[in-house]
Amino acid sequence: MSAHIAVVGASLAGLRTAEQLRIAGHTGPITVLGDEPHLPYNRPPLSKELLADPGDSDPARLHASVAFRRRAVVGDVDFRLGQPVASADLDRGLLTLADGTGVRYDGLVAASGLRPRRLPLPGPRRGRYALRTLDDCIALRGALRPEARVVVVGAGFVGCEVAATALRLGCRVTVVEPSGAPMGRVLGEVLAQAVQRHHQAAGIAFRTGRSVAGVLGREQVSGVDLDDGTTLGADVVVEAVGSLPNTEWLARPGQPAGPDLTDGVLCDNRLLAVGADRLVAVGDLARFPNPLFDTTPRRVEHWSIPADTAKRAAATLTALLADRDPDPLPFTPVPSFWSDQLDLRFQSYGSPALADEVCLLEGDPEDLGAGFLATYHRQSRHVGTVAVNLPPARQRALREAFTALVPAA
Ligand SMILES: Cc1cc2nc3c(=O)[nH]c(=O)nc-3n(C[C@H](O)[C@H](O)[C@H](O)COP(=O)(O)OP(=O)(O)OC[C@H]3O[C@@H](n4cnc5c(N)ncnc54)[C@H](O)[C@@H]3O)c2cc1C
């Protein structure tokens, strides 16, 4: 098949889709366009190993695993790096790059992921950080000096990982979170409170139920004002307050029809964009229904999802370009993620955030380090599992058990 497929976004989902297109039998040209100057790399180490180790600045080591697979499977893919795509004419099959160059395509893959949401507050820029890219990580770790006063805004997984790493580097760390205990939306109140106590005992301070009302300082950050009138001194402020989908290049101002970009790219269960032809979406950007849970389309921001969605989206696009019907079997990936914080390794399967009930199966919330297991249920149906510090063999078994336990919707 000689059709040209363009992939926008040269990160994990873009790379994996290029690989899967070849595996699915696509022999025509593939162009992967990425705005970052780097080859695809893994983001999880950016808040963990790479942020912690100032001596390790070799990007080759960071993306060794993915770069290896790129050479093996997709050597004939044209990677055009440092090339932001400015817009897409979906009717004519034409991308326009930021430098004005046009790129024609027959099939399009949206793999442009997310960018950090920033606090909508004025104030100095120096000393304020967000973390999404390798360059963000290198900039932040230069600021995490021993004794630096670090305020992390947002106690989600990335915020808590940055807080843990900063503590390890000798910083004085406070986490500010407007809702309750850290990662509470996913872990549930009991486990989240236990994690907060664990992290506090290690030396991380928490200001929960509080939000940042102002950033202080002239050119360099000197602190933040909280909404209860108190002030925290700070040399570094890390804004870990969620992400925004990179969909602007797909917007069609003034045109009523087109893809639904309300929160990422709305797709059907085959990852075909609703309201657009020959466009599939993958990775963090794709909002799709997963019949494992229900019929509501959702985006999933886990490292495992690029590989899962790439496989299905590549099969869908290859079939469409060959005038075949895409595979009708439901796409039911099991979301899974891990998180390393201090001496705790969290492992999650399914969608614990959907639960209305949590069952604590094993372990003592006051001693999470010794191992802990909870299952998550919605209307009595198992929708998620969270393990803390369980050995790898048990984690594998939990994943398999999860797939068997959850009935299709
Ligand atoms: C700091 C951090 C730690 C994480 N830790 C974990 C973890 O421990 N466990 C876990 O399961 N998950 C973790 N994740 C999540 C995981 O890394 C993501 O789910 C994964 O990277 C998503 O890959 P993606 O390719 O869909 O999107 P992205 O990685 O966001 O890639 C999208 C790419 O497209 C580029 N792009 C955007 N717009 C354009 C445009 N117009 N033109 C060209 N290119 C464009 C972007 O610059 C980017 O390079 C972490 C994420 C971060 C940021």
Automatic annotation (TrEMBL):
Superkingdom as given in the UniProt entry: Bacteria
SUPFAM superfamilies: FAD/NAD(P)-binding domain, FAD/NAD-linked reductases, dimerisation (C-terminal) domain
Cofactor(s) annotated in UniProt: FAD
Keyword Flavoprotein set for record: yes
Any one GO molecular-function label of the UniProt entry: oxidoreductase activity, acting on NAD(P)H
Keyword Flavoprotein: yes
CC per GO annotation: cytoplasm
InterPro entries, per the entry: FAD-oxidoreductase/Apoptosis, FAD/NAD-bd_sf, FAD/NAD-binding_dom, FAD/NAD-linked_Rdtase_dimer_sf, Reductase_C
Domain Reductase C-terminal per the UniProt entry, residue ranges: 337-393
Annotated keywords: FAD, Flavoprotein, Oxidoreductase
Pfam family, one: Reductase_C
Domain FAD/NAD(P)-binding per the UniProt entry, residue ranges: 4-299
Family annotation (PANTHER family): APOPTOSIS-INDUCING FACTOR 1, RIESKE DOMAIN-CONTAINING PROTEIN-RELATED
Name of the protein in question: NAD(P)/FAD-dependent oxidoreductase
